[in-house]
Amino acid sequence: MTETRSIKVEALTRVEGEGGLHVKLNGNVVEDVQLSIYEPPRFFEAFLCDRPLEEVPDITARICGICPVAYQMSAVHALEAALGVSITPEIRRMRRLLYCGEWIESHCLHMHLLHAPDFFGVDSGIELAGRFPDEVNRGLRLKKHGNELLEVLGGRAIHPINVAVGGFYRAPKRDELERLIPDFEWGLDAAIEATRWAATLDFPDFDREYDMVALSHPNEYAMNEGQVASTSGLSIDVSDYEREFAEEHVSQSTALHSVRTAGNSCYHVGPLARLNLNFAQLSSVAQRVADEIGFVLPCMNPFRAIVARGLEVIHAYDEALQILRDYRPFKPPRIEYEHTAGSGCAATEAPRGLIYHHYAVDKQGKVNAAKIVPPTSQNQRQIEDDLRGWLPEVLQDDDRRTALDCERLIRTYDPCISCSTHFLKLTVERIES
Amino acid sequence: MSETYHNLIVGFGSPHGDDQSGWLVADRLAADARVPNGVAIRKAAVPLDLLDHLEGVVCLHVCDAVHDAMSTGAIRRWEWNAESENSSLTRFFAEFTRMRCGGSHGFGLMEVLDLAAKLRRLPQRIVIWAVGGNRFAAGDAMTENIERALPKVADAILNELNHARAVPGAVSASSS
Fold first, then answer.
1. Looking at residues A69-91, what average pLDDT do you find?
2. What is the tally of structural domains in chain B?
3. Is A180 at the interface with chain B, CB within 8 A?
4. Distance (Å, whole) CA A74 – CA A238
5. pLDDT, tens digit, for every residue of A328-379?
6. pTM for this predicted structure
7. How far is CA A98 from the centre of its chain?
8. Looking at the complex, does the CB of residue B30 fall below 8 Å from at least one CB of chain A?
9. Which of A23, A42, A307, A409 could potentially form a cystine with A428 if both were Cys, beta carbons 3.0 to 4.6 Å apart?
10. Out of B51, B52, B118, closest to residue A130 by CB
11. Cβ contact (<8 Å) for A14 and B106?
């Protein structure tokens, strides 16, 4: 007789949003894995229709409190493509600076409070803080720098309001950015130490054959622009994204699943994908640290994403410092434009991975159609696929232990369920036959 | 870049329904010329943001809306003081297990204060002002009797700041 059982995680912790996982086992054979996202759909795309296009960056910023900049950046670039607006190099640099702030804030939160506890067998960032107060304090101070940058450039740290189609409503004053330099000099050194610390963690041996997808740009570590590239050799213009990637509805999830249209296969987005595809464009200081800690590429072990995030934090500090030091106020802060009918799309790199926006606008400047594909939607099917590979490695008689191991893997993706629709319940079902 | 101040007021909330309470109290105090010097006023969306502002803070006032545990528009006040003989943090935190404040990534207000304690960053004195709420969905309007209650919360905080009242027992709860 083979025992079939079902393991349920009622509430996955240390992720943003609400969802669950159901695993069905027949003996020790995994019959089914379903990441079930039950958080109610948020209908942002429908909210945007018939609204002035100028409202899009502020409305889409509300999709997420951790990565509002990703939504704003993708929205403004897509709308500028629709309107035929070209931005100045100064605006472009300010947008990269803003994104550096979001990467620092989001990555440092995930590294220190959400992901690191998994490597020490503790239940929470609070317990970890009791054991490693200096490391956690350092991480939180880094996170604060990211928020401060968002506050100065974006007008406020929560849902910034200074981002506009065509640029910014207001360019920062020089002294506003200069004041940040001492903290960012400290932060660059602290980010290097944090990454060295992350590299000493005990990583499970779990290498996968991923198709990793990220933006790639020949001259810079891609954030706002580039080709959509993959480790399997894809390199396409963003305008061809919808030809190569599709969204599917699945019954267990209020978030759509993304797949590659060729082969209906899953793919992986996020910091590991970016590093694997764009290491040559990473800042030299981050490259040196990667060499020093023995970070070998290609890296296909999702648990090492914590180190990838650390390397990206180093890059973000290094690039932000250069921009802060060189900054001169610029005019105009925003490129003027005429309303014209058209459509445009853009992809940028959110902390959790590639994010795609597509809008159609009319000549009155109203949005006619909107499509938003966040990174967690794109990673959902990959997470399920990973769990099918991971479960045989971690399967125990104790369903609670198995469920915890599944949660560890899911957290490597830093999933933002609120973004994708938008806590996870894990159930393991064992069948007796 | 970082400023230090001894008194910090943080309003937690969002733009939606009764969840606006903390932000509106913060806005009201920020516009009030009677707020003494050395007081910083911040708005935050999630409790984790509190950790960004605790450096050098001696006294922290927090205002947030809570679901279910209190009647709509009711105001409750809790105080913890490290120098009190009865300064059990555990007891203080236990007061909140019945409260449903918002949070993100599993970090509600209680967890963030617990984290601050582990990191030795807890202010010497913490006063929490909770406003009972009912409507928390996106786009909800604020409940009328909560709108009426918020000036009382702002005035009560202002009164404490201006009169540096003697600190009562470590854990005290009062309601109105």
1. 97
2. 1
3. yes
4. 11
5. 999 999 999 999 999 999 999 999 999 999 999 999 999 999 999 999 889 9
6. 0.88
7. 15
8. no
9. A23
10. B118
11. yes
Is B43 part of the contact surface with chain A (CB cutoff 8 Å)?
yes
Does residue B97 form part of some domain? yes
Domains identified in chain A and CATH numbers: 4-204+326-431 (1.10.645.10)
Position B123 in a domain = yes
The pLDDT tens digits for A257-306 are 889 999 999 999 999 999 999 999 999 999 999 999 999 999 999 999 99
Q: Give the number of other Cβ atoms within 10 Å of residue B159's Cβ.
A: 11
Contact B119 A137 (CB under 8 A): yes
| CA neighbor of B89 nearest in space, from B171, B172, B173 | B171
Tens of pLDDT, residues A189-245:
999 999 999 999 999 999 999 999 999 999 999 999 999 999 999 999 999 999 999
CA distance A337 to chain B (A): 30
Range of the domain at B42: 7-168
Does A148 contact B at CB distance below 8 Å?
yes
Q: Does B114 touch chain A (CB under 8 A)?
A: yes
Give the tokens for residue B150: 């918020």
Chain A contacts of B52, Cβ < 8 Å? 140, 143-144, 147-148, 157
Tokens of A213: 């997808």
Residue A339 burial (CB count, 10 A): 15
Half-sphere exposure of A167 (CA within 13 A, CB side): 20
In order along its 176 residues, chain B shows pLDDT tens digits of 556 679 999 999 888 889 899 999 999 999 999 999 889 999 988 888 899 889 899 999 999 988 766 788 889 898 888 877 666 777 777 766 555 555 555 678 888 998 999 999 999 999 999 998 888 877 788 998 888 899 999 999 999 988 864 434 333 344 44
Q: Which two tokens stand for residue A300?
A: 């296909």
Please indicate whether, in this complex, the C-beta atoms of A137 and B121 are within 8 angstroms of each other: yes
For residue A98, give the H/E element and its range: helix A89-109
Instruction: Say if B2 falls within a structural domain.
Output: no
* Residue of chain B nearest A180, judged by CA positions: B1
Q: Which of B52, B106, B138 sits opposite A13 (nearest CB)?
A: B106
CATH number, position B36? 3.40.50.1450
Asked if residue B173 belongs to a domain, the reply is no
